[in-house]
Amino acid sequence: MPLIEAKHLSKSYGALRAVHDVSFSVDRGEVVGFLGPNGAGKSTTMKMLTGHLRADAGAALIAGLDVAEEAVRAKQHLGYSPEGAPAYGEMTVREFLRFAADLRGLTDPAASVRRTLALCRLEEVAAQGIDTLSKGYRMRVGFAQAVLHDPEVLILDEPTDGLDPNQKHEVRRILKEMAATKAVIVSTHILEEVGELCTRVIVIAKGEVRCDESREKFLARGADLNAVFRQLTA
Amino acid sequence: MTSPAPAAPGLKPFAAMLRREFAGYFRTPLAYVFLAVFNAFAVSLAFFVGGLYESGVASLDRFFLYHPWLWAFLAPAAGARLWAEERRQGTLELLLTWPITVWQAALGKFLAAWLFLACALLMTLPVAFTVGWLGDPDWGVIVSGYAGSLLCAGACLGVAAVASALTRSQVIAFVTGFLACFLLVLVGYGVFDELLAGLFGPAGIDEIRRLGLWRNLEPFTLGLLDVRPIAYFLSVAFAGLGLSTIIIERR
Question: What is the DSSP string of A171-234?
C-alpha cells in the first residue's frame, strides 16, 4: 500500500484552474521532489493531500486513509510543514512543540519534545519566543513540529526556502536520515536539491503533472537542469 | 511501522487547545490591560453613574445594569483573536492539518475565552463584598446576577467568534463584533422601535425587544431564574460558536 496517494485531484479557485486531475502515489522509502514554477499548483496539491483544502474532485489518501473522510486518523500519520513554516510566534520553541505533542495525544510528550529539539538542533533556542528567532531557526521549528511524532508521511512545502547553504545542508541531512522509513514529499524550486535529496521527481505546471520519474531518469534528461525544467514546464 | 500508531486521542487535543488558548491571553500584556479596564469600568459605572452607594440599597442591580454595555465592548476585544490571529499568522493551516476536528478546536478556543471573561467578572467580587459589608444583601440574588452576567458574556463572545472567523484582522474582528453586540444592547432599549413598528407592528416590537441583552439579564439581577433568558444567552453563544466553526470549515 502506498503511504501517499493522490487520486485525480482537482481544485479551482473561481475561474482559475489551480490543479487538474493530478494522480500519483508515494511509497515508503521514497523522497519525492515536487517541482514546478510558482503558481503551478504545488502548494494547492499539498494542501489537498494534507486535508487543509477540500478537493473539488478526486481523493487524497494518507496511509490508506481518506483525508476528507477519516481526517483525524489520517492526520495522525502525517507531518506537514506549510510554506513559510507558520508557528505561534508568542510561544517559545519548547512551548510550541509541547503544545503540538499534547494536541497529538503523544504518550510521552516531554520525551518527544526533547528528542525533536536535539534532532533539529534547536536546544539552544528552546526557551526563546518563536517571534524572536531568525528565519533559519523558524524554518527548523516548522520542520520540528512536522517530525515531532515520527510520522510515516512527511509533506514539506519549501522547507529550505530562505536558508543559508549550511542550514539547507542540515535540513537535507536530517531528511536523508529519516527517509528510509517514511514517504516524503518535498516541494522546491531549487533544482540542485533533486540530485542531493530525492529518489524521484514530479514536475507540475499549470496544474498538471508534466513528468513523474526516478531521479536517474530525470537527471539523464540533460546536463542543464534549468533548461530541462523550462522545457517541461513550458 | 515507525509511527507509534497513536491511539484514539479522545479529549487530549481538546484539553491541549483549551490550555493553550487560555494561557495565550496571559502571554501578552493585553490580558492585564483587559482585566484592569473591565474592572475600572464595571466599578466606576456602578458607583458614579449608577449611584450604587447613594441608592442606599444593599443590592447589585445597579452594578449589573451596565454589564451588557461592558460585555458588548470587551467580549469582542477578548474574542477578536480567536480565529483572526490564526489566519494572520498562517497557523490555521497548521492547526487544520493536525489531528483535531474543527469543532474540538473551536470549542476549546471558545471555552478558553469564556473562562477568561469569567476571570474578569470574578475580579469584581470585592464590589459584592462591599455591599455585603455595608448592608445585608440577598446573596442568592447576587449569585444569580453573576450567573446572568457570565451568560451574557458568553452570548457576546458567540457574536465575537463569528466576527473573528470572518477576517484575518483583529481590528476588523473587534469593530464588527462590537457593532453587532452594540445592536443587541440597543434593541433591548427600544431604540429601533419607530423604525421597526412599521415592519412588525406593536406586538412584534415587544418580541424584538426581548432580543436585547438587558431584557434577558434583568431577571437574573432580580433573582428570577427563568428558562427563557437562559435559553436566549446559551443559544446566541452556541449559534455563534457553531457559525464560526462552519465558516472556518468552509474557508
Answer: HHHHHHHHHTTSEEEEEES-THHHHHH-SEEEEEETTEEEEEEEHHHHHTT-S-HHHHHHHHH-
